[in-house]
Structure formats: structure tokens, C-alpha cells
Amino acid sequence: MREEARIADVLEALTLEEKASLLSGGGAWETAAVERLGIESAVLTDGPHGVRRQADAEHFSLDASMPATCFPTAAALGSSWDVGLLTEVGEALGAESRAAGVAVLLGPGVNIKRTPLCGRNFEYLSEDPVISGQLGAALVRGIQSRGVGASVKHFAANNQETGRMQISSEADERTLREIYLAGFEHVVTTAAPWTVMASYNKVNGVHAAQNRWLLTRVLREEWGFDGLVMSDWGAVWDPVAAVAAGLDLEMPATGGASAARLVDAVKAGRLEEAVIDQAVTRLLTLLDRATAAPEPAGEADFARHHALARRAATESAVLLKNEDAILPLDPAARMTLAVIGEFARTPKFQGAGSSQVNATRVDSALDAIRDLAGERLQMSFSPGFLLSGEGDPALLAEAVSAAAAADTAAVFLGLPDGADTEGSDRQHIDLPDVQIRLLRAVAEVNRNVVVVLANGGVVQVATWERHARAILEGWLNGQAGGGAIADLLFGRANPCGRLAETIPLRLQDTPAYLNFPGDGAVVSYGERFYVGYRYYDAKDIPVSYPFGHGLSYTAFAYSGLAAAVDGEGEEAVVRLELTVTNTGPVAGKEVVQVYVGDVASSVDRPVRELKAFAKVEIAPAQSARLSFELRARDLSFFSSVHGRWVLEGGDFEVSVGGSSRDLPLTATVTVPAPALATPLTLASTIGEWLAHPTAGPVLLQAIRAMPGSALGSDPTVLRMVESLPLGHLIPMTGGRLDITGIGQFLDQANSETG
Ligand code: BGC
User: What is the pTM of this model?
Assistant: First the structure.
């Protein structure tokens, strides 16, 4: 590591012009260099699920990049709920980055899936911040363990592609803190990413890359982020405002224009040079970190990474439905299997845009099924439809006759090109008509239909799922996904993915339906923190498959929940223990999910929220005893009134199970915490004053002491004035309400307010 003092020397030696030049890119994919002082550029590369290293780092292009392993996309990885696995994927991404000379990999993406329509949902992990945060942190730890920086993106509230460069995401602070910032917060505070990428959109009216509240107040001052903030590519409108707000690096290069504006601003006294120095120091620190890697870069082990990609895809697939245990198929059985759907032969394994990887190889499910099938298993393949989305009567007829002649039909369906993409959102969540027609026709001639899905954003299944006895949601599962699907279909692997995003019955049911995508200038997050299952559960509306759902070829039973509370207030810890037993025939993995709901709260809160989870492998007839600890923050809400996280003492319902709507174990715990006092002013209402633990009784006494007033004697009258600010009541009583020393009263009340 270059000494801090050494960085200070370099800073000292740089001219203002050189310093300013370092704060924007030196090319499309690299930082600027200052040859005179031996400051070299560092390469920044997409991300997030594979290394998209362009041979020409100077010029912007999305053309074919150097071969790299295409791991499952975040939509898949998020469904693995497997922290260890994501660490391993991160390590492999880090190793490939190092081998390719990359200093910072641009990922992971931890934005919340606010609406299923977001074109980039395939690059994001979940609708829930605990999953996004924990899995995002695992990826960061893995990447950085190889001496490569991660760039957590897109900070923040970048939840749609429509109008992404101009739109202002308008959300109240509580919604931001509890949903849209919480995942970033977890990554920053537990995994110390080298960089954070500021997003294109505005947050409450201010561009994220120029948003001081976001980049300095929250990210650095509150969360203690000590790394570098870079902009998304082209996200800076005003480089001076950006640097002043806490941005350190504008990407990509601007041909010197931004540097010139920074220099002018310093010379004109509009920007302090110290602010530039701070950003340059952070850039030099990043370069330092990049050159102080713990181990020498070697060749990437593509064969090993391909095997890891296959395992990751296996862990991520979600078995949504499996009537009469139609799956797994027996590869040694004497049977005929009709494999139908072009996606079986031409895998759909990643989305489009900046994350597109030039895969080292691609395995098709069709080949993998052939490899696994025993000698007595007869197989046919019919594409069924054209990838262009057009129906072809001959292909349809061929598929139907193959299905009619088979014992089982495995039908591969998925989203067409252009649905899972950066730069635009979907208009609907349906599979193409041509595919649904194919499925219906196949189901008419064969009862044993298994559907395998390939999609990044969720698709609506309600209108067609009756045609399938099993549905395996494979997601966009990377270059080795084909092998994973074959393993799962034939029971060589046991499905263990769980939905990290609810599958709604219909688009109209989704939380942001009326607010998305806004009017081009503003998108209101009017549904507030009721995102994903928080919304469906609050409204108690049916969904196709709930958050957390996923079947296995075995079964699990839950028992013996013990819950105990230690400490109080901020020190409170809820300790849980429970037993999970594999009651089925084969080994399998269960994702044990812990949800918490506040039984009685002074504010509106979700019915339950995921707070902890663990994936555990259990052999048949064996049990595992698991323990979890919940901390004060897991029980708290973000209070807009207090401007901080607040734990209200009282009862909390803790529920544990295998999905957000299958929670066999429940316990109520009582967590003690000091009474929550609201800061009082003369503008506070009578009701707020009366609710205050110490000021309330004093005021009540004064009211009761008012001579001849119904206010003191009739509770109904008192309730009527509860919404009146105290400052208004005093003159209205004509001086009869005697609160002498009101100043001291206020001071005393407020000194007790945390
Ligand atoms: C994307 C980022 C990406 C960057 C560089 C932008 O368009 O939003 O996710 O890292 O381009 O390719």
C-alpha cells in the first residue's frame, strides 16, 4: 500500500489542471493517467455477472469483448439465497478480472425490483433489501478477495429504465431508507466496496451523481464509506456540482471538458480546491488498492469457472410446481421424452446491454439432456417456434406430433430478445403468444407437460400454468445453465432455489402499477415501502407464487421454535432456535426464512418483513438445529419525525418457514425499549403533547385545572381538540390554560427525546 503520506506527496506535486483531469475518465473504460508523475490508469469493466473486457479501453462500444465466463445473472443468483455460493462466484469474477487486467468490476447491482416491468431486473437480486444486501455483500467480498474492486450500483432509486437519465424518483425518506437504500447500506457497512456507482436518475429532484445528501451525508457520513464514488456512464450533468456533492470520478472521458470546468470553478472561487484534493486523494487511494493485490494475477481457470457457473445455475432454479411428483424424470426409465422449444437448443442465458458477456462456451439443455439420458430413454427435439417470435404452423404441427408420441413433454419457454435489457422496460409480463399457443397445443395431446422457463424479469403464469404439471423457473442462468436444467430434470440435483421476487397473478396487481413509469419528469414511489410481498401481504391479495417459494424433491418439517430476548432498546437481541427435518426420500436444501412483524406500532408497518435466512443441506430423515439472532435494527423502522431508526418496545411476531406465505413456526417476543418521545414544539398537537411520557401528564393537569372548562372534564371535547397545535390552544382559552414556564417545559420535554 502506498503510504497516506506518499499520496499526500503526489497530491502536492500535481497541478490544479492535472488534479482536475484525474476526476474524469481517461477513456471509455479507464481512469486518467498523469505520466509526468507515474500515475497510471486503471481499467473499469462491466459487470455484474461476467467480465466484459473490451480490448480497446479508450473508446466506447458494446461490441464483442474478450471471452469470459458468463455466470448466472443476478435474477438467478438472487434466487439461490446462498451467501457462500455468491462469495465463490465473486471470487471467480475477481480472478477473471485480475487475469484480464481489470482493476474494478462494475457490479453487483443491488437495486430493488420495484416493478416486474423494469428491463434491468435480470441484473438485480431481489424485491427485498435483506437479500439484495446480504448477497450483494457476498459478491463484493468475493470479488475484492482477489485484489479487484467492486462497484456497487446503481446508487440509488434507479428502478426503471424508462427515462432513466432524467426521471426523478420521488420517495419519502422512510421508503428510501427501509427499501431502496437498505441493501446498499448493508453492502457498504459490511463489505467495504472499493467503489460505489451513482445512478443516472434524480433522487427527489437532484441527480444522483450530484446529490450531496446521498453521496456525502448518507453514504460517507452515516455509513462511513471510505471508497470512491464514480458516476454511471454519462450520468454527470454538471461536473462542478457533482464534485461538490461528493462524486470523485466522472465516467467516461469527456475530452477535457469537465476538467476545464472544474479548474474554472476553482479559479472563480465557486469550488474549493480542497474539495478537488479530497476526490483526487480517493482516486489515488483506489489506484493504490488496485496495485496492492494480494496475489499475482494468473490465467483464469475457465474450466473450473464453467463448473461453478453450472452449480450456481443449479442452486438458483426454482421449482414452482410439481404435481404428482412428475419430476424428477428417471434417466434410466424406458420412456419417450419430447423436448420442445427453441430455447432447449439455443439457450437464453443472459440479458442485453452493458452486462452482456462473450461466454467462453455455452451448454444447451438439449445436449445436456442427451448426455444424461440412459439408453432406454428415447428423445425427440422440436423447436416449436421461431426465436423471432413469429408462429410457424409447420413447427407447431411437428412439436404437437412429437408430444403426442411421447410419455412426457419438456417445453422450454422464455422471454424474447429485447425483453430483458438495459435501456427500456417491458410493457407487459406475458410470454409471447406463439409460445402459449404451442404449450396449449402440446398439453392437448400430452398430460405430462413440464415447462422450463428462461427469463430475467418474472413472467405471468396464471393464465397458462394449468397446462403444465411442473414448472421449473431457470431464469437467465448463464453459460452453463443447460447442464443445470438437465441435472434438475433428471434428479441429479435437487431444486433448492427460492423466489426472491413474488410472481403476481397479473400485472395489475403489482404495487407500482399506478405509479410506474411516471410522466417522464417524475416517478412517484407512492406505494411507499409496500414493495413486493410487503404490498401483497398488507392487502392480503392472492399471488401465483409468493416471495420465498420454491419446491424440492424432498420435504421439510419445522419444529421446536425457541425465542428469547436479551437486553433492551438498542442493545436488544432476539435469539431464535428451531429444528428443520428432512422428512422426504432424498437429501435436499431448505432455505429457512425468518420474518418479523411489529404487533402494535405507532406508525404504519408491513405485516412481516424478511430479516434473516439460511440455506441448509439436510440428509433424509435427519434434522438440523439452526439459530438466528435479530438485532434492534431488525425490529426498527425509520422514523421521519426523528430522522433515525427507531425501535418501539413491545410485542413482535417472529415467524419462520419456507416461504413468506408458509410459516409454520410463530412466536411472540416482547422487546423492552424506552418509550418513544416525539420532539415537541408549540406546533405539536395537543394529542402529541398528551402522548408524551412526561410532558403529557403535566399538560393534562393544566387542562383539568382550567376553571369552568368542558375541556378538562369532558373527554369527548378533549378528543375534539387533539389535532389542534398547542400554540393555537393557548390563546383560544383566553389565557385560562396556565402553562407557566413553557420554554422550560419544551426544553425538558425535548431533552428526553432521543
Ligand atoms: C450502465 C452501467 C454500466 C455502464 C458501463 C451504463 O449504461 O447503466 O450499469 O456499468 O453503462 O457500461
Answer: 0.95
